[in-house]
Write a structure and sequence with these properties.
alpha/beta, Metallo-beta-lactamase, Chain A, eight-stranded mixed sheet, six-stranded mixed sheet, 14 strands
Length: about 220
């Protein structure tokens, strides 16, 4: 399992930064969200050796500008875009003119071992992603506007969550994270410092340019290009 962090608020030398999130799962050829600024996104993709034509799936967590701003620059006829069903019909039409659109509303397996939570939340509807690994579920969130508890409840029906990466928004129920092997708070996580203090051995600070990986029985590791 490997994740490359393409877009966030902090980065290492040579990588652009901005308000938003985007990650790439190279083994799945899946792009999760696209940040806001397409120039920054494409620059950072290039440093990882990723070109838009390599991407087979794009997974959009929710429709806020800082998660879909770079989308138009990574669309191509061979890519499938997994969108929350509640996203604007006009936006769906625009995307569908340049790529295949799949609307997601409830939890399901979108391809082998890769699951969407389906739309969760009331005011802001959002989907999260889970990937089955040999040691448990790797969960990736955009902002977690619906809250981490319902995301956990949804995915725990298919497996034990072992890794959590993404924005956690205003999450504060820290005992929920007990038992995780790795926690990586990203963009818009208000309780980052409390999470680091409570789970110092499990929590890692990732910036743009980071690769998060776990191979077989190895421990989770973070590296920077």
């Amino acid at each position: 399992m490997k994740l490359q962090l393409l877009y966030d608020d902090e980065g290492v030398g040579g990588y652009g930064t901005g308000w938003g999130v985007s990650c790439y799962l190279p083994e799945l050829k899946l792009l999760f969200d696209t940040g806001w600024d397409s120039t920054i996104l494409l620059n950072n993709m290039g440093k990882f050796g990723i070109t838009p034509d390599k991407i087979e799936r794009i997974f959009i967590s929710h429709s806020h500008w800082d998660h879909i701003g770079g989308l138009s620059e990574v669309l191509h006829p061979g890519v499938t875009v997994h969108l929350p069903a509640s996203i604007s019909e006009h936006l769906k039409e625009e995307i569908n003119a340049r790529a295949e659109v799949v609307e997601e509303s409830s939890r399901r397996e979108i391809t082998g071992g890769v699951w969407t939570s389906g739309e969760l939340g009331e005011e802001i509807k959002e989907q999260s992603l889970a990937v089955k690994t040999g040691s448990g579920l790797f969960v990736l969130t955009g902002c977690a506007h619906p809250g981490l508890p319902p995301i956990f409840q949804t995915f725990e029906k298919i497996g034990k969550i072992k890794a959590l990466v993404g924005g956690f928004h205003d999450f504060s129920k820290l005992p929920l994270l007990r038992g995780l092997e790795v926690i990586v708070p990203l963009h818009c996580t208000e309780a980052s410092e409390e999470i680091f203090a409570t789970y110092p051995e499990q929590t890692f600070r990732a910036v743009v340019g980071t690769t998060i990986a776990k191979t077989g029985e190895e421990d989770w590791r973070l590296s920077w290009i």
